[in-house]
Amino acid sequence: MADDSSNNAYWSANVRIILISLVIWALVSFGFGILLRPMLSGIAVGGTDLGFWFAQQGSILVFLALIFFYAWRMNKLDAEHGVSEE
Amino acid sequence: MDQFTINLLFVGASFALYIGIAIWARAGSTSEFYAAGRGVHPVTNGMATAADWMSAASFISMAGLIAFTGYDNSSFLMGWTGGYVLLALLLAPYLRKFGKFTVSEFIGDRFYSPTARLVAVVCLIVASTTYVIGQMTGVGVAFGRFLEVSNTTGLLIGACVVFAYAVFGGMKGVTYTQVAQYVVLIMAYTIPAIFISLQLTGNPIPALGLFGDHVASGEPLLAKLDAIVTELGFNEYTTHHADTLNMVLFTLSLMIGTAGLPHVIMRFFTVPRVADARWSAGWALVFIALLYLTAPAVGAMARLNISDMMWPNGGIEGGAVTTQQIEEEKRYDWMATWQKTGLLDWEDKNGDGKIQYYNDKNADMQAMAAEKGWTGNELTKFNRDILVLANPEIANLPSWVIGLVAAGGLAAALSTAAGLLLAISSAVSHDLIKGSLNPNISEKGELLSARIAMAVAIAVATYLGLNPPGFAAQTVALAFGLAAASIFPALMMGIFSTKINNTGAVAGMLAGLGVTLVYIFLHKGWFFVPGTNSFTDADPLLGTIKSTSFGAIGAMINFAVAYIVTGMTKPTPQHIKDLVESVRVPKGAGEAQDH
């Protein structure tokens, strides 16, 4: 491939964005929703605590934000590296 | 007009709509049959993916499982939405760039091996068939209630409808039909939830009502619910009781499985560009989240309503509901209706004319029961899968809402069953027959074999659906475990590693699928035949890890075996490394190629 170096920079930028997103993904679900719930038990939310809210509502909202952030960020990255489709 | 006629009207009207659309967009060539000519907008595609995805498990079964377990079943909520993050970040854009029609084509080409493609086909068929079994369970419940027949009769009628429906159109028919189905199912799910949320909390948004105050008592809704269920001897609703390791693995299995299921991945082949594949996953989750944010509210509120209904005079002090009330009062009519399906039952064991509903396994409750002369829980059967469909009747909502829910439940079960049958039939006809056994098959022969494959799959699923290995959502969870252990790791390694070679991938998939399948069969019976299991999920083979949670471990085995075997065999050739490099950049995606 002619523009190998640009592709490598593009790919490692992509992998870095993915890794950051997945850390947040795991933190809100496995973290706040399950493992770290005892830590958040002091924060009351409508008759229960913040961990319960993350497990049944919050994590889903964060997942949505993550996917739209990634789509927006990657489409920008495609343009920056001149690898978008058109 | 009686309820039965109203249900019939709603279900009939919604079916007429789907069939009308299917005729209007009837599939012609094979290319259209599989991938709708790739002209689908991301929002449309997202909505169709949501309909495809939200099956009987999400619509009919999930809220019931949450209602009767509480916080511990949050895994379903996080698992079935969190998988979309994996799908959007790790798979969808690259598979669209690769530009073929099926998941196994990608695996076959990337791992330059017809064997890899064949193994992928087998994995897809195993996971999808298990999934269809779960759907058929839900179809049985929905048809049983709506036609007022037994669960078994409902299942057999449902199977015929699903088959006729899936054979009728290909994906193009299915794409637009599924948009219509999404609209029907989301209205059917949210409208009753809004009514109930208004009744109980005064808040029209169920997701907010769940954390709001209970109007009748002025306490927070969840605190009120915790108080009622503990009074009856059940576990507190909002507390974590389940084994933490198992809960984490179960959530992870559902997430990875979501990103490994063929009928969902196939959807991302049908958008015009790579950028659209990224947006599509987001739109799909928007439409899915509308249901998933509502489901925990539906579960909690239904649990509260049921407890109130069984103890209508303010808890145990006021006394239980009388059998006379159940027979005569209109708000208890739903109990008699559901009794007909065989999925709900009660019995006045101590003959006191009242039906005591409580946890008779709880020692304190047993002591109280002995004192009060109770002889065990008298609400003897409450199948979790009926909760959502019975919910509007329990809350005494207008009859048109009940009709709408019947139509929605059927839409959910039908759309997913159709999507899965399509994935199975394309795996058999396109990958198995055209791809390896008989490459010269005519287009007509390919379509015919696709339809035969559908018929066989549905026959097997119906047979096993008569004695399902669990409630709809639990059976579906097993399918996710299988997809997680076999397909997802192969796809991910195919994109994110240039090193993993043909032998490594094949060994990985076989090890992941094999170990997971054996673990499931050991707990659920060989080939899901009841009674042939050596362990139960209450006392599993490995520590606390239930068969529904094993997919995550299967996936790890898959990764490890692929890595080790790759190290011992010939490295990947250069042209495959170039292929991987090209899949990683969106430039030059163009139209998808048939072979």
From TrEMBL, chain A:
Pfam families: DUF4212. The chain crosses the membrane at residues 17-40, 52-72. Residues 8-83 form the Sodium symporter small subunit domain. Keywords: Membrane, Transmembrane, Transmembrane helix. This is DUF4212 domain-containing protein.
From TrEMBL, chain B:
It holds the Pfam family SSF. GO terms for cellular component: plasma membrane. It is found in: Membrane. One of its GO terms (biological process) is sodium ion transport. One of its GO terms (molecular function) is symporter activity. InterPro entries: Na/Glc_symporter_sf, Na/solute_symporter, Na/solute_symporter_CS, Na/solute_symporter_VC_2705, Sodium:Solute_Symporter. The keyword Ion transport applies. It is a multi-pass membrane protein. The chain crosses the membrane at residues 6-25, 77-95, 116-143, 149-168, 180-200, 247-269, 281-302, 400-428, 448-466, 472-496, 503-522, 542-565. Keywords: Cell membrane, Ion transport, Membrane, Sodium, Sodium transport, Symport, Transmembrane, Transmembrane helix, Transport. PANTHER family: NA(+):SOLUTE SYMPORTER (SSF FAMILY), SODIUM/PROLINE SYMPORTER-RELATED. Belongs to the sodium:solute symporter (SSF) (TC 2.A.21) family. This is Cation acetate symporter. It comes from Shimia litoralis.
